[in-house]
Amino acid sequence: MTPEPTLFASPSRNIGGEPRGAGVKLRLRRGLHALLRAALRLRSQPYRPAAGPDPVTLVIAPHPDDDVLGCGGLVARKRLDGLRIHVVYLTDGGASHCGHPGLTPANLVPQRQAEARSGLRVLGVDSAETTFLGVADGTLDHLAPAAAAALVTRLAELLDGVRPDEILLPCRRDGSSEHEAAFRLVRRAADATGRRFRWLEYPVWAWWSPRLLARVLLTSRRVWRREFAGYVPVKREALTRHRSQLEPTPPWTRPVLSPAFVAFFLQPVEYFFES
Fold first, then answer.
1. Which CATH superfamily is domain 23-274 in?
2. What is the pLDDT of residues 166-215, one digit of tens each?
3. Domain residue spans in the chain?
4. CA dist 1 to 92, 111, 190, Å?
5. E strands within 107-219?
6. Could you tell me the pTM of the whole model?
7. Which of 89, 92, 132 is nearest to 109 (CA)?
8. How far apart are CA 135 and CA 207, in angstroms?
């Protein structure tokens, strides 16, 4: 994940302590989210897999760790049921530590790829069912036309090869320019195949923005929930494999993803939106 500057300050900007009023804002955010979770439960229905004898799910992750954050519980349960999952990482994750004096894209990219593979092993996904497309992190929302077309072509080839029954990807309005670009690019690729897919959107940054989460709740045709009580430790363990994001990287004293943010994803239920 590459933090959006409008939502999270860079860790290097937090070294002096929490910004004034941060505690009040966090308590307000948590209160709003408690109300939204109640509304989500009332509006949602238990998740039902795509129809068919052996449904295949394709997970689109704009950055390494978005998959675990947004749908790690669902992925783990599907693999326990013996269902096939293929995960595609669009960007290389190399821009998560902009301004860090020691970590550069050159050493972050292999580290984040290794973390992604390790996290997926915890969830039960084999490396053979994993694709890294390697788009430079931070560029997905402003690719040159030729580069965007090449990426769409590669995604269309993946769709034709994997032949998923359902596609999981971040919400089209998720509060991240790269997540929203990912949605548009994958839809272009799907249109190019001429095939129809079941689309399920999972929130990532929208969890940090009650306004965005309320919007997707109100505008989606269906809301699904997948409960995985008892399996939260599996998702937590998969998340811990993304050490570069969850642990401070000296001299920074705070992680890229704050514990307050990560806590939103350690609930025993995940929600998916279908338009």
1. LmbE-like (3.40.50.10320)
2. 999 999 999 999 999 999 999 999 999 999 999 999 999 999 898 999 99
3. 23-274
4. 10, 13, 24
5. 130-135, 166-170, 198-202
6. 0.91
7. 92
8. 25
